[in-house]
Write a structure and sequence with these properties.
two-stranded antiparallel ribbon
């Protein structure tokens, strides 16, 4: 069965965005390689509308293609599913819009053949998937920055999120990968 893997940046105080500004994220070659390792094991990306539009507006530009051709190939060729009540169509290559998260449909997606499924950012989607016990693994890249305010990653969870530690990896920039498995999945 395919896994649903969440990969996201978090500030030390638990925020994933600061007023729509991402200049606080510290990028380095190690983090870049880790993203590519994860991409090689996935063939579907799930997004909320805001994350989808933000990434599309950057990764579909000529500037981005000059920066990182491997990422461009992955993100442009991979199947992308956007959960949005307001977005009517998705015009980025290989994208589709679903109006809501239907747990049975996501379970069927996990049972399909293929590589794992990746969720990038999209805290509201993550919270809904977690409430339905559909996330297998969390991969947080903790950035050594305290934002003081911003968008918290988890909102409206039905219960505490209990995680089993899998891995920690340090990067030269001071970023730290924290990888966990959902205990809800372990209990299934």
């Amino acid at each position: 069965m395919r896994k649903i893997i969440v990969l996201s940046y978090l500030s030390l105080d638990g925020f994933t965005a600061s007023n729509g500004d991402f200049d606080w994220i510290i990028w380095d070659d190690g983090v870049n390689e880790y993203y590519k390792e994860t991409q090689r094991t996935t063939d579907t990306v799930l997004f909320g509308r805001v994350s989808y539009e933000s990434l599309k507006n950057y990764w579909s530009t000529p500037k981005a293609s000059a920066e990182d051709p491997e990422m461009i190939e992955f993100i442009n060729q991979t199947r992308k599913v956007v959960f949005s009540k307001s977005l009517e169509t998705a015009d980025w290559n290989n994208s589709e819009v679903l109006k809501e998260i239907v747990p049975n449909d996501i379970e069927a997606m996990k049972k399909d053949s293929g590589k794992d499924i990746l969720v990038i950012g999209s805290g509201s989607v993550v919270s809904q998937l977690e409430n339905a016990s559909l996330i297998d693994e969390y991969r947080f890249i903790s950035i050594p920055v305290v934002l003081g305010e911003g968008k918290p990653y988890f909102q409206n969870l039905d219960d505490k999120l209990k995680l089993k530690f899998l891995e920690m990896r340090n990067f030269k920039s001071g970023n730290v990968l924290l990888r966990y498995q959902s205990e809800k999945i372990l209990d299934k």
